[in-house]
Write a structure and sequence with these properties.
50% helix; alpha/beta; Rossmann fold; single chain; five-stranded parallel β-sheet; 9 helices
Length: 236
């Protein structure tokens, strides 16, 4: 075989190989470009975080709004107060252990409804802040990079006692002041959603019992959370 003939044969073989491999290479490149590790977000909260039946909640709707590159590790527990989540509490230690095993480095925190809901046992702003800080700094000490703190949402008049709304509303305002202080000056403790109280105060039809959102309300709360979190998770 002459040199020219051999070279021509090699050219033909390389051309054929390119035709065969090009779709695979392109497909693989596209696949790699579309592959992105999921960010696990941990959640601590009460029944509003858990959801009325555990299957419809703001967490699921928020993750759906944020997109497929995020997943939730929801450790909310119904009926809990801030005192149920301090570092010496089993709820906290269990959640922290799960977060570590699931690779959670960002935790969303929303507590306060059960601290304020009963007019005769409202948790003081100072105790509320002390409990919340115990949870936050406990998480940061256990490998969490960032804690997102959300305002507790609105509850309607007449829940538990007729004067619940007056005492609770003042408590919520005081709690918000405490949260503003806690989330100032530390890049690892950031403010999340601050609009859910005002939103549900003007959308009472989205609360099924005056406290817990209905399906529409959970969609709205999830959207509020997602909108507040977007700047924390830049899209690439």
């Amino acid at each position: 075989m002459s040199v020219n003939t051999r070279n021509s044969t090699l050219v033909i073989l390389f051309a054929a190989l390119a035709v065969v491999l090009t779709p695979f290479i392109i497909g693989t490149t596209q696949s790699l470009s579309q592959t992105k590790p999921q960010t696990a977000i941990g959640f601590i909260g009460d029944s509003i975080t858990v959801g009325a039946d555990g299957s419809h909640n703001a967490v699921q709707n928020e993750i759906a709004d944020l997109g497929p590159h995020y997943r939730a590790v929801n450790r909310g527990i119904s009926g809990t107060k801030t005192s149920d989540w301090t570092v010496d509490n089993r709820n906290f230690t269990d959640a922290a252990m799960i977060f570590q095993s699931e690779g959670v480095h960002v935790v969303s925190l929303m507590l306060g409804t059960n601290d304020a809901i009963n007019a005769y046992s409202v948790v003081s702003p100072e105790e509320y802040a002390s409990n919340i800080k115990s949870t936050i700094y406990g998480l940061l000490d256990r490998g969490v990079d960032k804690v997102i703190v959300n305002y507790p949402p609105f509850i309607t008049p007449g829940i538990v006692t007729k004067d619940t709304i007056e005492s609770s509303k003042q408590a919520f305002l005081d709690y918000r002041t405490q949260l503003d202080t806690i989330t100032t000056g530390n890049a690892r403790i950031v403010r999340g959603d601050t609009g859910s109280y005002d939103y549900f105060e003007h959308h009472l039809n989205e609360l099924v019992d005056g406290v817990h959102p209905n399906d529409k309300g959970y969609q709205s709360l999830g959207k509020l959370w997602a909108d507040a979190y977007e700047h924390l998770f830049p899209q690439s």
